[in-house]
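Bench log, entry 3. Co-assembly request; chain sequences pasted below exactly as received.
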Amino acid sequence: EAQVTQNPRYLITVTGKKLTVTCSQNMNHEYMSWYRQDPGLGLRQIYYSMNVEVTDKGDVPEGYKVSRKEKRNFPLILESPSPNQTSLYFCASSLDGGDEQFFGPGTRLTVL
Amino acid sequence: GENVEQHPSTLSVQEGDSAVIKCTYSDSASNYFPWYKQELGKRPQLIIDIRSNVGEKKDQRIAVTLNKTAKHFSLHITETQPEDSAVYFCAASWGGGADGLTFGKGTHLIIQP
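Structure output for the full assembly:
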């Protein structure tokens, strides 16, 4: 089954404790992206990747890091989480940047 | 970069009536315009999309229209049903664009029984 998976689905953590949210797709998509969703603000892009070892900043990259060592995986790293990073995070993938994006199930993160 | 404005933020219609959600975009190079539906607690899912070489596309009760000159596109839902209640997002992109999709802020559609 073609899908995008994320883990964990829910996470409660404390300020400053490094965390990683994993994202994996099995559709051989070249393009992958991370979004955060906050009430009234819609979906805002954090980082994106056009291919292996190619990543770039989206609209709200501060406080986040990503890596793309393999085509299928695109983890999101928060080196020192802060309460303003409490949000719902979605990973997405597509054939290219201008095509239908398939979303993962989301990760609800709370930073205390 | 691209900027997408979406209106209204909330739309309440009677079951069976039509609903229209409108979006405008800023980058005249954009040529791909998808619409996503997000039910409560779920991920966004594509419901319909249109590319700039056509002005209208229909799929059963939903349709999208595109006016490239005015840089706006709209989602039309006819004969609304309770299961249409959700948040709808429009987006814009230029094909092959590295930036990917730029989303509007979303419209919460409420279907009143």
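Residues 7 and 89 of chain A are 11 Å apart (CA to CA). Chain A has a mean pLDDT of 95.
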